[in-house]
Amino acid sequence: MAEPEHTSDGHFVVIDGRRWRATDPEIPPEPAARLRSLLMAARRDISAARRAEDAEAERDARARVHLAKIALGERGTPWWEQTASQRRQRWQDGLDQRDA
């Protein structure tokens, strides 16, 4: 799969003409892969919950998507406005919440 186009400042990716906040590039490869795995699992769980018409399971899965996207830096305080320690704490918190 081709790498998406980034804005000149690197803060956003452009997909089909729409800007989306980019993942924090400072997340080390292994934690980033784990967070992406958690994100995709939660997205699959949304689909399964919708097929089962299980509103509670869908809410839970959507909450997990939100947590993963915050940990990846795609939501919440922009990663370029955080210190290195705040960025590290953000993605570590995302992994800790899922490991709990």
Low-pLDDT sequence parts: none
Strand % is: 5-15%
Spatial extent as radius of gyration: 14 Å
Q: How many structural domains? A: 1
Q: What is the average of the pLDDT values?
A: 94
Report the helical percentage.
55-70%
For the secondary structure, the number of strands is 3
Strand order of the largest sheet: 1-2-3
Structural class call reads mainly alpha
Total number of helical segments? Answer: 3
Distance N to C terminus: 33 Å
Shape: globular
* Major sheet attributes: 3 strands, antiparallel
Taken in chain order, the helices and strands follow as EEEHHH
Question: What is the topology?
Answer:
Layout: E1 5-6, E2 12-15, E3 18-21, H1 29-51, H2 55-72, H3 84-99
Antiparallel strand pairs: 1-2, 2-3
Task: Walk me through what this model shows.
There is one protein chain. The termini are far apart. The chain has a three-stranded antiparallel sheet with strand order 1-2-3, with no helix packed on it. Strand 2 and strand 3 form a beta hairpin. The mean pLDDT is 94. The chain has three helices and three strands; from the N terminus they run βββααα. It has helices at residues 29-51, 55-72, 84-99, and strands spanning 5-6, 12-15, 18-21. Helix 1 (29-51) runs antiparallel to helix 2 (55-72), helix 1 crosses helix 3 and helix 2 packs antiparallel against helix 3. The protein has one domain. By secondary structure, the protein is mainly alpha-helical. The protein is globular, with a radius of gyration of 14 Å.
